[in-house]
Amino acid sequence: MASSERLAELKAFDETKRGVKGLVDDGISTIPSIFIHPFSPSLSSPPSPKHKTSFSIPVINLGGIENGSNLRKDVIERIRDASEKWGFFQVVNHGISISVLEEMLAGIRGFFEQDDEVKKAYYTRDRNKKVVYNSNFDLYTGLAANWRDTLFCMMAPTSPHPDDLPPSCREIVMEYSKQVMKLGKVLFELLSGGLGLQMGHLNELGCSEGLLLLGHYYPPCPQPQLAIGTPQHSDNNFLTVLLQDQIGGLQVLHQDYWVDVPPTPGALVVNIGDLLQASGISLMSNDKFKSSEHRVLANSIGPRVSVACFFSTGFLPTPRIYGPIKELASESDPPKYRETTVAEYVAYFNDKGLDGKSALDHLRL
């Protein structure tokens, strides 16, 4: 498609303010050309490991870690190992009740399945707003439009006024965000321990100060073999805590294979972000926490609903500089990334879009 034709089609889609769900509601059987992913042939049969049982996302039980020092040490070791080898793990007994998890998923689903005219009031591409609904933050820069609509809510350190949040999910977004913030502080303590630092180190660096909640809605796709829900990327933050429903489709790239992250009842998926990878250098070896690339496949049975909580301060006017933790650097294990502010890195990431290339290369020395 000529660039002018593509731009016109993108604008026409954007101006409907109905997102991908609007296309599905119209009953389309063929996806518009702007959604056809250039690497779609590989999506129909993603590579799988020869021995699939040897590849499974670690599931870590956080129950009781506040009471027993030996148990806490074991959990720290398991999180360290998962963060270095996978960059992904799931946590259970994390302190957030199943009823809250279910209500959070239902709240996001309720927002996207309400009347279009109600949703349109929140549709914008203004990144300075604390509450934003749109389809594809990188609609005009990505390789292809993704089969996904999103509700963005900046929840910390300064939360939006309750009246600014959609009534369909207002109370649960506020409650869930508070509970995820509490869990985040615990996770950063455990990650600090895994790096051999004082337990409060990453929290003191401000890693747990900012929270962005993203509610994703992946409608059923009539041609899932041609589209992608979310293309290959790593996250531009410190840490992500993901709640996903039972549809599935999330995959992590591990040892050159796409490995499913299976929905586990009551579990939350945790993954290391770029900024934590850029900060972490192991004391014992050159292995570091890994910000793994991942993707979400389009599906024909949806809608798939997920809630990703990004721990990031990229939307705050803070001058704090982040880079490799100096306490962990040595002559044999020198810094691999230059320093940056979170705002600078996030702005670069957003402008670049999800193009399948790592934004971390922008910081590599």
Automatic annotation (TrEMBL):
<dbReference type="GO" id="GO:0051213">
    <property type="term" value="F:dioxygenase activity"/>
</dbReference>
<dbReference type="InterPro" id="IPR044861">
    <property type="entry name" value="IPNS-like_FE2OG_OXY"/>
</dbReference>
<keyword id="KW-0479">Metal-binding</keyword>
<dbReference type="Pfam" id="PF14226">
    <property type="entry name" value="DIOX_N"/>
</dbReference>
<keyword id="KW-0408">Iron</keyword>
<comment type="similarity">
    <text>Belongs to the iron/ascorbate-dependent oxidoreductase family.</text>
</comment>
<dbReference type="InterPro" id="IPR027443">
    <property type="entry name" value="IPNS-like_sf"/>
</dbReference>
<protein>
    <recommendedName>
        <fullName>Fe2OG dioxygenase domain-containing protein</fullName>
    </recommendedName>
</protein>
<feature type="domain" description="Fe2OG dioxygenase">
    <location>
        <begin position="207"/>
        <end position="314"/>
    </location>
</feature>
<dbReference type="Pfam" id="PF03171">
    <property type="entry name" value="2OG-FeII_Oxy"/>
</dbReference>
<dbReference type="InterPro" id="IPR026992">
    <property type="entry name" value="DIOX_N"/>
</dbReference>
<keyword id="KW-0560">Oxidoreductase</keyword>
<dbReference type="InterPro" id="IPR005123">
    <property type="entry name" value="Oxoglu/Fe-dep_dioxygenase_dom"/>
</dbReference>
<dbReference type="GO" id="GO:0046872">
    <property type="term" value="F:metal ion binding"/>
</dbReference>
